[in-house]
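Obj.: predict assembly geometry.
Materials: sequence records (below).
Method: joint structure prediction, all chains together.
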Amino acid sequence: MSVCVVMVACSVGEQHFLKGGIAQELRTDGRKRLTYRHTYVKTGVIPQANGSARVRIGGTDVIASVKAEIGRPSSLQPDKGKVAVFIDCSPTAEPTFGGRGGEELSSDLALALQTCLLGGKSGAGAGINLSSLLIKEGRVCWDLYIDGLVISSDGNLLDALSAAIKAALTNTALPKVQVSAEVADDEQPEIDISDEEYQQFDTSSVPVVVTLTKVGEHYIVDATEEEESQMSSAVSISVNRTGHICGLTKRGGFGLDPSVILDMISVAKHVSESLMNKLDSKISAAEACEDDGKEHNKLHERIVISFGRRD
Amino acid sequence: MMMRKIQLPFTQTQKVRYERAIERLQSLSSTVNSDASVIVTDTIPVNHEDAFLKGHGTSEVDGELLATVCGVVERVDKLVYVRTLRARYKPEVGDIVVGRVIEVAQKRWRVELNFTQDGVLMLSSMNMPDGSQRRRTSVDELNMRNIFVEHDVVCAEVRSIQHDGSLQLHARSQKYGKLEKGQLLKVDPYLVKRSKHHFHYIESLGIDLIIGCNGFIWVGEHVEVRDPVMMIDDQKDAEMISSSSSTKEQSHTPLETRQNICRIGNAIRVLSNLGFTVTVEVITETLNLSNSKNIDIHNMLGSEFHVVVAENEAERRREKRKK
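Observations (raw C-alpha cells):
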C-alpha cells in the first residue's frame, strides 16, 4: 500500500547532489543520516480539548488533540474503553490537500497510527491500556477521540503525528467519574462527572514511530519532502520504551529484501531510544511551561511589527 | 529593516538577548523616513489644494486620504502611493533570476520564477550547445530536451516585460544556463536587493553563489565557464565519455566542498528566518561566525545561533556606522 505524497520538483543535478550527500553522511542541511531536525513541542494549545499538543519538526507542523466522551463499551469487549484516531491533512499544508485530495493520505496515516497505538484485534501489544478507560463494566466507559491536523508538511508526517499524539496523551486529564451503583440491567446508570478532580493519563507505554527512508543504498531518518521524493521505499517502525515493536508499515514502490528490513528494524530500535528520551524531556518541559503560563496568565505569541528605514 | 515574528521558540535568556539585539538594530536604522511609514487607516499628509493622483494602497474616505496597506508613502511628482514592504518580486529589465523549468513548449521553455506569471525563455534566446550562431531549425526545436528538461534549474536574465506582465528571459552568455551540483534555496524576494554583482565565486571555498533577484538563491560547486569555441572539441570527448559511463555513477562532490555548500545554505536559511537582507558580505560574515564558534552545521538552524547572528549583525552595523 503506497501513498503518493506530493512530488517536489527536483532536477537531475539536484537529485544527484542529494543522493551524494546521503551517501557521504552530509545531507543538504548538514545533518547526519540518523539525526532528527530540531523538534519543538508545545502542549495545551487547545483549551477546550482534554489534551492537546503541537509538534514542529523542521518544516513539518502538526497538532494533535484528545477529546474524551462518556460512552458505552461494545458488547464484544465490555471491559475496555474505545479509542478512535482521525487525521486531517489541511489544505494550508499543500494546495492538493484541498477537497478530497488529502483523503487517501489521511486515511493511510490514521490506519498506521491506529495500528501502532491500539495493537492487534485482540488488543495485544497496545500502547494505550484500554482497560484503564473503563468506568463500569459493560455500561460506562470513556471514548477517546484522537484528532491530528497537519498544518505544514515538509516530510516525515508519521513521526511528527505520533510524537504529537504522545504529547497530547501526556497532557490529557480525564475527570473523575462517580457512577451510581444500584441500577437495573437495561437502564443507563447516573453519572456524576467531577469538575475538580482529574487523573492524568498514563503514557509510559505509548510508542513512538521512527520512519526510515531508503534512498539509494542508505537509510535516513526524518526525511524532508525533497528526500522523500527520491526514496525507493520507507519503513515506519513503532517502538515502545521497553524496545518492543508495536507496529510496522512499509511505503514505496520498490521491494525490500527481508534482511534489509531486519537491519532497518535494528537501526530503528537504536534510534528510538534517544528519540524517546529527548521527546519525553521536551514534553515534560512543555508541560512545565504550560503550568507556569497558567499561573501567571501571560499572553502567548505577540506579533511585533515595527517599521524603520529599509536598508 | 522590517521585523517580523520569529518562528523559533527561545528560552527566556535567549528571548531577552534577541529582543535587545533587535532594539539596537532599530535604533541604528535612520529615522529620516519614519514619518513616511504608515499602517492601515493612517492618514497620509497631503496638501489638498494641489492636484494629486491617488495611487496603489490609498483610498479617499471622508475627504481624507487613508492608507489601505502597511508600508512607506512614496511621492513621485503628483502621484502618491504606498509601497508595501513585503511585496512580490517586482521584475526590472536586466535582473538576474534563477528559476525552474516547468514546461517545454514550442520553441520556448516556461520557467517558474516566484512571480505572478511564468517567465518565458525562447529557444532563440539560448546559446546552441555547439556554440554556433545560426538560425534555429526544426531539428533544433526537436532537440530542445537536450538543453533543458522539466525541473531543471536555470539562471537567466530578464530581457523584457511584455504588455500583459509576463517576462521574457534570455541566457545568451556562458555564465547563464543550467545549474547542477548544488542546492536551490528560496527566500522572500524583498530580502534580495539589486546590486552590481549577483554571481559570486567564493574562491577559498570553491563555491558558486548566485543570488537571484526573485528570491531564489543557488549554492553549488564551482563550474568553470567554458569558451564556446573550445566546446565543440569538448563536446565530442564528452559524448564518448558519457556513453561509456552512463551506467557508472558520476563523481560526487568532494566532502569539504559539500560541507561548505551546506554551511552557506544554512547561513542563508538563518538570515531568511531573521528577516535580514541577503548579500554576499552578510553570508560570508555568518559563515565565518559559525566557523569561529565551531558550531556544527546542523546546529546553525537552532535557536542559539539565530540569537548569535542577530547580535553579531547589530555589532557589525554599529561598527559601520562609526566609520
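Conclusions so far: Residues 38 and 219 of chain A are 19 Å apart (CA to CA).
To do: check interface contacts against the pulldown list.
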